[in-house]
Specification:
two-stranded antiparallel ribbon, 31% helix, Rossmann fold, seven-stranded mixed sheet, 257 residues, single chain, alpha+beta
Length: 257
Amino acid sequence: MCRAFEMAGASVRLMHLDALIRDPSTLDKADLVGFPGGFSFGDDIASGRIFAMKLRERVYPALREAVLRGTPMIGACNGFQVLVQVGLLPGPVSGEPWPIEIAPPQTTALTDNRDARFCDRWVGVLPQRESVCVWTRGLADLLPDDPAARSDAMQLPVAHGEGRFVASPATLDSLRKSGQIALTYADNYNGSAHAIAGICDATGLVFGLMPHPERFLSWNRHPYWTRLDPALRATPTPGLTMFKNAVEAVAAASSAR
């Protein structure tokens, strides 16, 4: 993830969670925030649970202030699991304020895959044009017009056992109406509600997804990259494009000020 931000044009500071807990004001200096994948605390209780509870209890006010000042955030895989348990995703309903001291209640979850197996593969994903997500903005328009070529290009790697997105019908309807469904699966291999692969908050700044965009920064990581159109391989990968979108959004906001 550090490499992804750097390739997109940002300078990076890698910070341990405990160091952030000791000084949450460090976030005041951040223009972008990333929550990486992996198995935080061994996922011994549940995926991302301990990491998320530490954030909820000790860092939420600083995270809230970061969102309010326009800081894009991303959580991939374990990072997505953390963000939904903190309450940063899906966050408050559009138009409602962020709670001041206590994080929003958890309203969505990522649970066992439909087949109850760990899945490590590349999957087809579909960027949603109507989404307000900053990270996926314009991604669908950058892909080839040919459906087969589009399917080849728009793939991301996954590696998880608890990636099935679940929520109440009311929450799912709210996410759809407010443009918070940013990414869906082409084949919905893990049984996620509405085939959801990634969502954002109502501002479009906070983005979480189970696939790993940071693992697809170069075309030679694609499972059959040598068969792809050379013209396509001359453009940024979908994974790198997401990080570039966020960096460009920060730069645009800074220029506007």
